[in-house]
Give the backbone structure.
Amino acid sequence: MTETVTKRDDYPYSHPLRVRYSEIDAQGVVFNAHYLTYFDVALNEYLRELEFDYHAMVAEQQMDFHLIKSSVEYLGPIRFDEVIDIAVRPGRIGRTSLTWELAVFREGEDECLSRGEIIWVCAKIGTHRSHPLPDNLLKRLR
């Protein structure tokens, strides 16, 4: 992840989510493990927005993504019942891997509350060996 200021406008897509009571901890803020769930939800919604059919990739091409790295930076508190926007953009696109850059903003605000990075490697099912990213995904990301 870069050390620069994270701006909402730098992300092509964001998914809104209202923080549920079950997601907060004893300090009254979102429990740290939920950030990865938020990132996963936003990534899936972004792929849906791109009209990329993940399930078809698995079934027809026998390929899947393996998560090899996830990181979260906690920059500001997020509390119960707040509406947040989980922003997504592709970062580095390699031959077999894809880095996602994510950020969380309070609805209607520009201050970044959290940043994250998710790295996927494409693999042939059953082999656990890397495989080139699918062309139909690459076309949608570019």
Summary: The chain has a mean pLDDT of 95. The two ends are 20 Å apart (CA to CA). The first helix runs from residue 34 to 49.
